[in-house]
Write a structure and sequence with these properties.
Layout (H helix, E strand, L loop, with lengths): L3 E5 L3 H13 L3 E5 L2 H10 L4 E5 L7 H10 L6 E5 L4 H9 L4 E4 L4 H17 L13 E3 L2 E4 L4 E4 L2 E2 L4 H12 L7 H7 L11 H14 L9 E4 L3 E4 L2
Parallel strand pairs: 1-2, 1-3, 3-4, 4-5
Antiparallel strand pairs: 6-7, 7-8, 8-9, 10-11
The chain binds calcium ion.
The site of calcium ion has 5 residues, from loops.
Length: 234
């Protein structure tokens, strides 16, 4: 069945070019030209992915994203930002956006992102083709119950997002080994051959540390290896 993409964007020419290209790739599209309509369609029409502009009439993209997440929806949200400011991108990710793309973007890059984010969701019920290893991971004070997808520290359950869970699972499955941000984008975010902005990894690691570490400023579990990347202390 065709996947449906909700486009929330107030610039008609961008909406037109996005719908044209997405439809050509076999997607169905829905369009909203302001924040409140976008939010309503997101919550009632159950699209497979949302392309969400930041600067929108009525309600900006940050607010729309926040409310979609507050409703409990984990639908992939790709933020479209015209601005180069890092703070915008990071804020978008903090509020629950899965990814962002800066305008002007190439249609090829946008399609790759759309596909990767939809694939990530599809892969979640069955993460790997062969039977996944669901044995628990126990590393000192941290235990990952991979049957129930629950992480505990000192027997207290950590409230993690799906992405934070995927990230800690991946790092903890090979403790002591450092992974580059690019590798994490490939393995945890499912971008094949990822090149480009890897800030999403830093944001996810920071949020994970806030939940996991005794003192996030001086992490003991998820460590940074300068020039190499991140690792789970073995
Ligand atoms: Ca706009």
């Amino acid at each position: 069945m065709a996947k449906t993409i909700l486009i929330v964007e107030d610039e008609q020419n961008i909406v037109d070019i996005l719908s044209f290209n997405l439809r050509r790739e076999g997607y169905e599209t829905m369009e909203a030209y302001d924040g409140p309509t976008g939010l309503e369609l997101a919550l009632t029409k159950n699209p497979d992915l949302i392309l969400l502009d930041l600067m929108l009439p009525g309600m900006n993209g940050f607010q729309v994203c926040k409310q979609i997440r507050a409703s409990g929806s984990s639908i992939p949200i790709l933020m479209l930002t015209a601005r180069e400011e890092e703070s915008d991108k990071v804020l978008g990710l903090e509020l629950g956006g899965d990814d962002y793309i800066t305008k002007p973007f190439s249609m090829r890059e946008l399609m790759a992102r759309v596909k990767a984010n939809i694939r990530r969701v599809e892969m979640q019920p069955a993460p790997v083709k062969e039977k996944p290893d669901l044995s628990p991971i126990r590393l000192g004070r941290v235990t990952i119950d991979r049957e129930r997808c629950v992480v505990t520290k000192d027997d207290i359950v950590l409230e993690l997002t799906q992405r934070e869970y995927d990230l800690i699972c991946f790092l903890a499955s090979q403790p002591g080994r450092a992974f580059s941000r690019e590798t994490l984008m490939e393995k945890v975010w499912n971008y094949e051959g990822y090149v480009g902005d890897v800030r999403a990894v830093d944001v996810a690691v920071r949020r994970l540390r806030e939940k996991l570490e005794d003192n996030p400023a001086s992490p003991r579990f998820i460590l940074t290896r300068r020039g190499l990347g991140y690792l789970f202390a073995g």
